[in-house]
């Protein structure tokens, strides 16, 4: 028996044995209980909301202990899942790469060394680390200096060959390109802060000292890869309207608008064009700070030769820890790097195609009918991704048998928990309800597409797996409807109580998605 199927097979046998011991029959199992009838009426009422007029809705709820389907509306319909796609990617990564997997960034020297002089090239080889910071490059440079290198006579070679040259998903829309959630993917990159949005720079605009002066522009991390074209103005008073736009095909960021004297600085994440060069620029500056001079050029995209001797390295956090910023903050870049890393590890090809094949293989082993879905990227940014809600529920039920499940479950956003790295993209939703600190689920948002899939413990202590996927609505947000369903599931009971008889639970107000932006509102609010 395939090793990944074995624990699930045991779980199925256990379910059968339990049902047999209880004298359960198939007919009895399928007969709706009074509680299930109430639950169905509640969810039907939520889905009858006028905001879904003309839209498509798929909702499936399953009791994970028995496998009983409690609700199914269009469960086999293929819908755009947005970031719920990350459930497929993250589960496959945990199984196929392993919770202990790390990304390694290395520096090697090719050429003779004598009296502090390297008569050859210095190679910076990327291992795909999406969490590497400027401070990490500084520590790597410190190791190079500690190894005795003072002058590099040759070039600094930035080796990003672990993955292919495909920087952007083939289906991503052109107008997403400047925004942090659509950063270019490279095996060699930089993240500006501990949100770990690799391939981006945070640009800050502070007011000048007087009205009429240009605002002061700074960047995190400081770098020479981006160029600032500052067209903004400091005003005596008035509304702040600062905007940062990177021009297509280059690294010029145009700053426009106004900011008043005495106002707090405005900041935004901006993607870079060619993150390999960005990483090389940050590392070269770090070398300079540690007294290492590179006399040659910076060359991008050349592989490190086998003859090169290692000088320094940096290992990322283990994948188990990476799951937290990845899933809590719905980090698209992490999903795409993991997809290419899966391809590299399993087939020697760091491409989307190879990685997606690996994901499909794993989720298929888990019982997902891969013939019913289409996955085009790791993150869900592509609108060509199509997944039936029932297949998400199949995956959610199956992975409970995996040894890494507890780590993965804890990394999912938790409803109503204000801690950013606990509640994540659900931190401002369902607070003060039965779903708060109960629902563990992945959010998903594109314009006209919204999803919420995960787990909830009902009022009788059963762990339910659910998937809600809503498409083709015209209103700004349907998050409140997802929340109403999740709250209803958290309140679900077979006991006859006043709470159980209530038809549609109220849901706290949820964040709204601005039209025309694919989840760019995640910072600082969360989707």
UniProtKB/TrEMBL annotation:
> Which Gene3D superfamilies does the record associate with it?
D-Ala-D-Ala carboxypeptidase C, peptidase S13 (3.50.80.20), DD-peptidase/beta-lactamase superfamily (3.40.710.10)
**Entry's EC annotation:** 3.4.16.4
Database matches in SUPFAM superfamilies: beta-lactamase/transpeptidase-like
Write the record's keywords in alphabetical order, separated by commas: Carboxypeptidase, Hydrolase, Protease, Signal
Please indicate if the UniProt record lists rRNA-binding as a keyword.
no
Q: What class of enzyme is it?
A: hydrolase
Report the leader peptide range.
1-22
Which Pfam families does the UniProt entry name for this protein?
Peptidase_S13 (PF02113)
Q: Which InterPro entries match?
A: Beta-lactam/transpept-like (IPR012338), Peptidase_S13 (IPR000667)
Task: State if Phosphoprotein is listed as a keyword.
Answer: no
Molecular function in Gene Ontology: serine-type D-Ala-D-Ala carboxypeptidase activity
Which NCBIfam families does the record associate with it?
PBP4
Q: Which family does it belong to?
A: Belongs to the peptidase S13 family.
Name this polypeptide is given = D-alanyl-D-alanine carboxypeptidase/D-alanyl-D-alanine-endopeptidase
Q: Which gene encodes it?
A: dacB
